[in-house]
Design brief:
The protein is an all-alpha fold and 96 residues long. Helix content is 79%, strand content 0%. The longest helix is centred in the last third of the chain and has 42 residues, at 54-95.
Length: 96
């Protein structure tokens, strides 16, 4: 089934889709991005007796960057819905 464009969706559908994407975004931040970023930062706090390999830093940085890319993709999906909601609500308010 082909999904309709955002411009063809009702305001209710835009709210529903943006709510789903927002939940996905928050879940990703809490369970994906932030833990990976914190692990990377923790890894960088190295003491003399706890030396780490370059490969460990590269792997951790790579996982954090992959998670950041997914975060950006979610934002790119969510922002058009938010813009459409703003446009439709503004239209309703000004028409009174």
């Amino acid at each position: 089934m082909v999904e309709r464009s955002i411009q063809q969706k009702t305001l209710r559908e835009c709210f529903t889709d943006s709510e789903r994407l927002t939940r996905e975004f928050v879940e990703h931040l809490e369970q994906g991005f932030l833990p990976k970023a914190h692990r990377f930062l923790d890894l960088l706090e190295v003491t003399e007796e706890n030396r780490l390999e370059d490969i460990s830093v590269r792997n951790s940085a790579s996982r954090a960057l992959e998670s950041e890319n997914f975060t950006e993709q979610l934002c790119e999906k969510l922002f058009p819905y938010l813009e459409m909601i703003e446009k439709n609500v503004s239209k309703i308010v000004t028409e009174g």
